[in-house]
Amino acid sequence: MQLLANTNFDFLGKKLFFIGLSLVLSISGIISLIVKGGPRYGIDFRGGTLVQVKFLQAPPLDKIRAALQQRGLTGSTLQPYDRPETNQVLIGLQIAEERELDRDRKAILEALKTALGGDPNKLDFNNASATSLAELLRSSPALARSSATPEQLEKLAQVMLSFRDSPPRSGLIKNFDELASLPGVNPDIISALKNEVSLGPFSIRSVEIVGPKVGKDLQRQAILATLYALGGMLVYIAFRFEWIYGVAAVVAVFHDTIITVGFFSLFNKEISLTVLAALLTLVGYSMNDTIVIFDRIRENLKLMRRTELEPLINTSINQTLSRTILTSGLTFLTVLSLFLFGGEVLNGFSFALVVGIIVGTYSSVFVASPILIWWQGVADKRKAARGPVLVEKPANRRRVAGR
Questions:
Q1: How confident is the model over 327-360, as pLDDT tens digits?
Q2: Do residues 238 and 332 share a domain?
Q3: Do residue 219 and residue 322 come from a single domain?
Q4: Residue 192's domain spans which residues?
């Protein structure tokens, strides 16, 4: 399918303007990274505590954020999790050497009670452990005459909490009468719970911690993964075409990565493992688009022997324009829908893809191709007898292999 037939746009006529634009975008991103002390890494890379909380109703994020700050949990991040109707939030806390898992959980529990209300003098059933619930039952005056042994009460506490954590409740009980159908739960137990235990409007589902050492290791591995990908592609393209093609393609992909990371810095967005996955995806996607154009250039070098290099490359870009618009355009619409409707969880991932596809398509035309023209100009000026010469003058044209 050919969307645009026989186009003759002068893409390279404005190459200096577009190279200047690339420099402005790249330098702006680098300056932003320097001013802000590097990328804003997520918990995956810098370490920290990640807490998943489920609410009975839509959580008031502003009130929760203010309560966390009052508890000294500055730098915390709130991110809606899963589908909106599940009312779940991920709370991210910055790492601290002395901070422990239990301390984080307790601080968040107190902050959420402050924000959403709750009886500080009663055990919250929706956030209780089996041990704490069993202790309360053993000491309850309402159960003083009960014949249940401490072991039986502890087992009963585990049964009730298992019921609480199972779907569709998933950690939240709305009424103690829901427990009445469980084996061993008699009216005395229900009465004790109603008198001495509260039902909070939220439940802390999980608490995970990523140590700073693990975060640093992930940073190093992420950088190495990107460099290995670029190096492997350089070798592949140099083998398939010539080394200058590989250099041009890798420079274009590096340009894409720098600008995309720069946009993350300019818009103060976190770089997480999902964003890294998006960046590595873009490396391959942009490289594929560049290879398509290079392949057409290589074919035209044989078919258009009397054409200068710049118009030859321009013709090659026009010939692949329909394919570029179809593939990049459809992919862009897909990732744009992810960005607009995918929610906070996919925001960083989709943002990287939106920026990367635009910049990657742009660089295949306005970065990689001008590098080939620049190299030809250098070769002509030096009048080298050896070296990778792509095109000579029409009067005496002969393509010399670079390998």
A1: 889 999 999 999 998 777 788 899 999 999 999 9
A2: yes
A3: yes
A4: 48-209
